[in-house]
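User: Can you recover a sequence for this backbone? Please restate the input before giving your answer.

Assistant: Of course. Working from this structure:
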């Protein structure tokens, strides 16, 4: 009977040690998990960081570029068109 109490105490202490460790470890591991789930991306136009899922996507030459707003997407598109026009003008 006494052994059972000792085992219970040891078990409780071990349980506490494990849960304490987990609490200490969590702050190191959870930011990474958060980063994956809610990754921050940079708007190439205005350089603002925003969560990936809130971005506005533009497909450009098999690449997806994300913007913080439709406004930035439109401005970027105009800039791209101007650039590609310059490039074709330069070549010909
Ligand atoms: Zn922007």
């Amino acid at each position: 009977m006494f052994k059972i109490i000792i085992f219970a105490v040891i078990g409780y202490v071990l349980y506490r040690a494990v849960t304490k460790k987990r609490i200490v470890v969590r702050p190191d591991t959870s930011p990474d998990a958060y980063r994956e789930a809610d990754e921050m991306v940079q708007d190439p136009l205005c350089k603002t960081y925003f969560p990936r899922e809130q971005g506005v996507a533009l497909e450009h030459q098999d690449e997806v570029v994300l913007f913080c707003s439709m406004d930035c997407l439109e401005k970027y598109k105009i800039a791209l068109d101007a650039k590609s026009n310059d490039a074709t003008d330069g070549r010909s």
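That completes the design. Residues 2-91 form one domain.
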